[in-house]
Amino acid sequence: MSDRNPRIQKIATSPDWYHPYRISQAITAGGLIYVSGQAGFTEDGGTVPGGFLNQGRQAFRNVERVLAEAGANLTDVIKVGIFVRDLPANLPHVITLRTEFLAEPYPADTLLEITALAQPDWLIEVEVIALAPN
């Protein structure tokens, strides 16, 4: 539970790779799980090599891991935000990732091209909102 509001609960995996930055991996509130943006990094903070698709797959795996900690999975996702560097070059890869990790009915989605992410070698970041388990 949160010190500031008992209806807000922090969700964190172990290790909690966001703790040093004072960011929650996810928050549950009002029957929803809000997962912070996840990039293509490993538990030790290293960027996954191999380009956009490898980073995207790891980003979605990181989302899955955080959702699992909250008792949910990707089928519970109702909204996705995908932040991409070089959208024209990577749009086909985004569609591939959606096909691999999401299913009908597809979640609502926002896709944005950005100039930079928190680390200079990150190419994609994924955030989601999901239904919390009853």
Structural summary, described in words:
The protein is of the alpha+beta class and 134 residues long. The chain contains two helices and six strands; from the N terminus they run E-E-E-H-E-H-E-E. It has a six-stranded mixed sheet, with helices on one face. Strand 4, helix 2 (87-101) and strand 5 form a beta-alpha-beta unit.
Provide the fold topology:
Blueprint: E1 9-11, E2 26-29, E3 32-39, H1 52-69, E4 77-84, H2 87-101, E5 108-113, E6 124-131
Parallel strand pairs: 4-5
Antiparallel strand pairs: 1-2, 2-3, 3-6, 4-6
Mean pLDDT equals: 93
Number of helices: 2
| Helix/strand structural class | alpha+beta
Percent helix among the residues?
Answer: 10-25%
Low-confidence stretches: none
Query: Looking at the chains present, what oligomeric state does this protein adopt?
Result: single chain
Write the element-wise H/E pattern from the N-terminal end onward.
Answer: EEEHEHEE
Rounded to an integer, what's the Rg over CA atoms? Answer: 14 Å
Q: What is the β-strand count?
A: 6
* Portion in strands: 25-35%
Outline? globular
**Terminal-residue CA separation:** 17 Å
Largest sheet: 6 strands, mixed
- Strand order within the widest sheet? 1-2-3-6-4-5
Brief rundown of the structure:
This protein is an alpha+beta fold.
Which terms summarize this structure?
2 helices, 6 strands, 6-stranded mixed sheet, alpha+beta, 134 residues, globular
